[in-house]
Amino acid sequence: MSEIGMNVVLSQSRYTMMKLNAIKLISWGLCLFVILQANSLLAQASNRVLNLFPAGTVLHANIPFAQDTLKKHLLDIYLPANTTGKIPLVVFIHGGGWLVNDKYADMGYMGNTLTAMINRGFAVASIDYRWASQAIFPAQIQDCYQALTFLCEQADKYHLDKNRIAIMGFSAGGHLASLVGLANNNKLPEFFMKGKAQKFNIKAVVDFYGPSDLTGLESSDDPKAPEAILLGAVPIERPDLAKKASPVSYVDAQDPPFLIIHGEKDKSVNNKQSKLLSGWLNSVAVKNELIIVKDAPHFGRMFDTEELKSKVLTFLENALKP
C-alpha cells in the first residue's frame, strides 16, 4: 500500500475512534441526566407535602446540611416557580416533643399558609434535627444553627436572601425557633458546631405554641417528660440546664419581632408559656403580637384559617421588606 493510502486508512481509523468516543461521551451524559432526573422525581415522589404547595413550586429535596450522612441532617427547599434574584427565606422547624416527627410534620395542616407564602415570593426551607433520644440538648439548637449556616453559605445557589430570614416553628419547633431568634446575638459557642459560630440576619420569628421556660412546664418534675429527655435531667432538679435551654433566658432589646400564636385549650403546652414570652419581650420593648386562638387545641387546622394566614403573611411581609 502506498504512503498516501496508509495515511487515508489511519485518518479513517482516527475518525472512527473519535466518533466512538463521542458516542460514549454522549451516552454517559444521557445516563447521568437520566439518573439525576430519576433522583429528582424520586425525591418529589417521596415528599408527602409537595402537593400542598402551588403548582410549579420548585423542590430541592433531602439536601445534606452537615458533613455527615445522618438522616436528621437533611433539609428541603421550596421555591416559587421561575425564581430569579434573591428572595426572603422562611426556615420551618417541625414539632414533636423533640422526640418524634420530621421535616414534613406540621406542614400537613398548614397548606393555606404555605401556599400563600410561596405565592407571595417567599422561599421555605424545612429542616430536620436530631431527636433528644439520639442526642440531648444542645444538639437540637446546634442542628438548627448548622442548617442556617448552610443556607446562608449556599444562598446564591438557591436564590436566597441571607439578609432577610424568618424562623417559624411549631411546639418543640416553636421552642427551637424562639431559641434560634433570641440566642442569635448572645454569642454562645456551645450552641454551634465547632468553628461554625456566627450571627445571622434573622428579621422575624413566628412561634406556634412553643415552650419558652422549661422550668415552668407542668411536667417539669417528671423524669419521663419530653423536656427531661431533652435535657438529660429533670428540669426542677437541674434548673441550670433548663435555663440554658429556655428561650426566655436570652431576651434582650436587640431581638427580632415575634408573632406568637397559641391555642386557648392547649393541653400539651399551657398558653401561659406564650404569655410569659410575650411579657418578657414587652419588658425590653421588642415588638411582638400574641394571639390566643379561641377553642384551639395544641395543633391542627385551626391554626391555618384565613384570618391567621393573613396575620402570618402580613407579619412576614412587613418584617422581611427589602
TrEMBL record:
Which GO molecular function entries does the Swiss-Prot or TrEMBL record give? hydrolase activity
Per the record's keyword annotation, is Hydrolase included, yes or no?
yes
Q: Which residue ranges does the record assign to the BD-FAE-like domain?
A: 75-281
Q: Which UniProt keywords are listed?
A: Hydrolase
| SUPFAM superfamilies noted in UniProt | alpha/beta-Hydrolases (SSF53474)
Domain of life per record: Bacteria
Query: What EC number(s) would the UniProt record show?
Result: 3.1.1.-
- Give the protein's recorded name: AB hydrolase superfamily protein
Tell me which species this is from. Answer: Aquirufa nivalisilvae
Taxonomy, top ranks, is: Bacteria, Pseudomonadati, Bacteroidota, Cytophagia, Cytophagales
